[in-house]
Amino acid sequence: MKGLVRVAFVVHLMQVAGAEVLVRETIRRLKDRIRPTIFCLDAVGRIGEELIAEGVDLVCFDRKPGRDWRVSTKIARAISERKIEVVHAHQYTPFFYSALAKPLCGFRPKVILTEHGRHYPDRVSPLRRAVNRLALDRLADAVTACCHFSAEGLSRADGFAGSRIEIIENGIEIERYGPPADRALAKEDVGLEPNRRYLIHVARHHPVKDQPTLLRGFAQAVPELPGVDLLMVGDGPLRGELESLSVDLRIPDRVKFLGIRTDIPELMRAADCFALTSLSEAASLTLLEAMASGLPAIVTAVGGNPEIIRHESEGLLFPRGDTIACANAISRVFRDPELASRLGTAGRARAVERYHLDRAVEEYFKLYSQLAGR
């Protein structure tokens, strides 16, 4: 155990979301090379419970609303007790408390900030920008982002030195995804009708995901696509409103709200096209999963989406909030099988070439090793 790098991962809570899944998979894949601890600011979460059951050390600080300055003291104590060498903070708030904890430790651990998504609209107060530029940027030993969009936000909005930000792109378990040998059978396996086609959307039901544009766009395309249904996978605070909207649009029989599912690879194999209508997005894991599944993708031209999907190459891009453009894209893909096949094949090839999870994990381990002086 002496040679293992002692790494603490700092998050809000270990829920089922992109950054938290990355932490889980990093811990699992580096189990023979790091000694991990998870610091949860707010709550443990479902993934946290999984990892505790696997024997992973996890500390929850039960942060109070607002600025809870005691959290940094608690983090510093936990770091010192465990002799943590590298503190990897995912997102700004976990980094904020980790950076303030650094001077309070008996020794100075190395601190990494990794930026995933950005808020929409992306506004930062002048005070926060000044504090970042004059103090917190100097307390970060490394700064990474999952895409150029997130890196640009850290520099432009938050005031971190752009020249030092390293891009480590997201990755997925490519081997879990792929086109089905028999799509009709794949549909039957997940309880769908084999003679219908499906547009799949996988995301939490939250304002930033802008599902109303998807529902309205789909409703406009429905008259031209009698054999196509929409699968809404996920849950969240807006689910009731979205279900009501489908009724108002007179398409409740064409939209299936499936809730949270654990069989995403199987659902992707059963689907015929993927859609993501977010107002803002960084590097969506579900988009990568859809590409790896060989699905043509219809996505808004926001954030990191255009870095992943090139228009008319792996998918179709359209402006955020543009219902007509969304409807036209849906119609094009489902009415042109040759286009759908070409986009899906290119997306699968790009995912296999560029977005392997193991590649991302190895890049992070290289960073840990460098900072720990291995």
Q: Quick gist of this model?
A:
With 374 residues, this protein is α/β, with parallel strands linked by helices.
Keywords summarizing the entry:
single chain, 374 residues, alpha/beta, Rossmann fold, 2 domains, seven-stranded parallel β-sheet, six-stranded parallel β-sheet, 15 helices, elongated
Task: Explain the overall architecture.
The chain is of the alpha/beta class and 374 residues long. The chain has two domains: 183 residues, Glycogen Phosphorylase B (Rossmann fold), CATH 3.40.50.2000; 181 residues, Rossmann fold, CATH 3.40.50.2000. The protein is built from 15 helices and 13 strands. The strands form two sheets. It has a seven-stranded parallel β-sheet with strand order 3-2-1-4-5-6-7, with helices on both faces. It has a six-stranded parallel β-sheet with strand order 10-9-8-11-12-13, sandwiched between helices. Helix 8 packs across helix 13. It is elongated. The mean pLDDT is 96.
The largest pleated sheet is described as: 7 strands, parallel
Helix content percent band: 40-55%
In terms of quaternary structure, the protein is single chain
Number of domains: 2
Integer average pLDDT: 96
Order of helices and strands, N to C?
A: EHEHEHEHEHEHEHEHEHEHEHEHEHHH
What's the CATH topology name of the largest domain?
Rossmann fold
Overall, the morphology is elongated
For the CA atoms, what is the radius of gyration?
22 Å
CATH architecture heading of the largest domain = 3-Layer(aba) Sandwich
Q: Given the helix and strand composition, which structural class is it?
A: alpha/beta
Q: Number of DSSP helices?
A: 15
Number of strands: 13
